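Memo to structure team: turn this sequence into structure tokens by end of day. - J.P.
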Amino acid sequence: MPAKPRYIKPQDSAGYQVRRAHRRFDRLLSAFLSQHGLKTGHWYYLRVLWNEDGVTQKYLSDMTNVAENTTATLINSMVQEGLVTRQRDPHDRRKFAILLTERGRALESELMGYAAQINAIAGAGIDQTEIDTCLSVLERMSGNLAQAFGDLQKGTAASEG
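Reply from structure team:
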């Protein structure tokens, strides 16, 4: 008989605390974005495109960790709102590049200001070395979880074959 799993109190759970913080970041960001008539989902794609414009839908899905069908829906919405356009890849006619419009590009300076403001609010009263440690730990945790998920997928695929 397997051992009974140990109960972890929410305040002692990294997963719970990360989700709780994320939801609070997300709510405040959503309030700022709504002033521009934007959805929070658009933010994640804009962030990627501001760093690297003209990427594929698959790349956007990978970078935002969102399913491709959800990405397709959000891109359609962003096209309708004049934030991005689709352009067929001249080298591979099956692919489309997602490109920022003038409006999408122009939002960068103001919206990135919100990101800085929200991060400053979240980090108020916390020493920068603690924030740096937190970011480092979260990045490593994310890597560990991605590795475990990949291993699980490989194990599942191997057991199906």
